[in-house]
């Protein structure tokens, strides 16, 4: 008879005793992910470029129902595109919590809109440096600092724009396609002790994505089978699952969280 008991814990949502680093987490999806991991019991370090916004985010997490006390939340200011800032974030997370079990690469930029033929190449290089190279840099550092010897989970925040063309944010989409490919390469290289997955949201109601929906939110939402845009919490709940032991046999996947948009053939 087959064994159907499964190796997972009795309460797979529980991540008590884990420590996570979430990049680009002063607002939007990153902040929601940090709150979700706290809700699941983890300690969390968040990073962001702007110290005032980071301080506000830390205060919001500490004051939220999930934190319990300030000892489970740390904030480290720094640009994900800066190697020294990445190293400081990883080093201080391990120093603060004693380990680093979960890395969520959420930091991303999109300074270029429109056709690639008109794109400034320096801006495109910057997009790839932050959205792809920095993500790999964080994984390398987390691997050396803790995960190589103890295991862990990495979740990369990609985009539906990395799966099909939007004709609006082409350079960003190309960088997210590279991040999706990076995810599968890392999963193959780092298993079995480290799992690496990605999530690919469609349009989520954040300040980062405002230009994609603010002109006609109702019309944009009407293209989705779910008849609404995404929320940061929609993405965060999936990230929490992929980071937890409930997803212990999932690695190398990019999971859509797109309200059914791709099923329609729509580009977003």
Automatic annotation (TrEMBL):
<dbReference type="Pfam" id="PF13561">
    <property type="entry name" value="adh_short_C2"/>
</dbReference>
<dbReference type="GO" id="GO:0016491">
    <property type="term" value="F:oxidoreductase activity"/>
</dbReference>
<dbReference type="InterPro" id="IPR036291">
    <property type="entry name" value="NAD(P)-bd_dom_sf"/>
</dbReference>
<keyword id="KW-0560">Oxidoreductase</keyword>
<protein>
    <submittedName>
        <fullName>3-oxoacyl-ACP reductase</fullName>
    </submittedName>
</protein>
<dbReference type="InterPro" id="IPR020904">
    <property type="entry name" value="Sc_DH/Rdtase_CS"/>
</dbReference>
<dbReference type="InterPro" id="IPR002347">
    <property type="entry name" value="SDR_fam"/>
</dbReference>
<comment type="similarity">
    <text>Belongs to the short-chain dehydrogenases/reductases (SDR) family.</text>
</comment>
């Amino acid at each position: 008879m087959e064994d159907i008991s499964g190796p997972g814990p009795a309460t797979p949502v529980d991540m008590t005793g884990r420590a996570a680093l979430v990049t680009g987490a002063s607002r939007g999806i990153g902040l929601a992910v940090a709150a979700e991991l706290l809700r699941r019991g983890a300690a969390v370090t968040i990073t962001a470029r702007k110290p005032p916004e980071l301080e506000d985010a830390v205060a919001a997490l500490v004051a939220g129902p999930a934190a319990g006390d300030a000892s489970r939340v740390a904030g480290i200011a720094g640009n994900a595109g800066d190697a020294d800032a990445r190293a400081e974030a990883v080093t201080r997370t391990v120093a603060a919590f004693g380990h680093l079990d979960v890395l969520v690469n959420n930091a991303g930029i999109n300074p270029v809109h429109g056709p690639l033929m008109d794109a400034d190449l320096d801006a495109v290089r910057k997009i790839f440096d932050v959205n792809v190279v920095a993500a790999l840099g964080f994984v390398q550092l987390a691997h050396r600092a803790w995960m190589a010897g103890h295991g862990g989970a990495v979740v990369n925040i990609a985009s539906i724009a990395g799966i099909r063309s939007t004709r609006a944010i082409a350079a960003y989409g190309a960088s997210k396609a590279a991040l999706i490919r990076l995810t599968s390469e890392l999963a193959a290289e780092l298993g079995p002790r480290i799992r690496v997955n990605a999530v690919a949201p469609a349009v989520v109601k954040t300040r980062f994505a405002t230009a994609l929906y603010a002109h006609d939110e109702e019309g944009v939402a009407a293209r989705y089978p779910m008849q609404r845009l995404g929320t940061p919490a929609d993405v965060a709940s999936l990230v929490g699952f992929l980071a937890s032991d409930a997803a212990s046999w999932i690695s190398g996947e990019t999971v859509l969280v797109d309200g059914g948009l791709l099923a329609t053939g729509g580009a977003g």
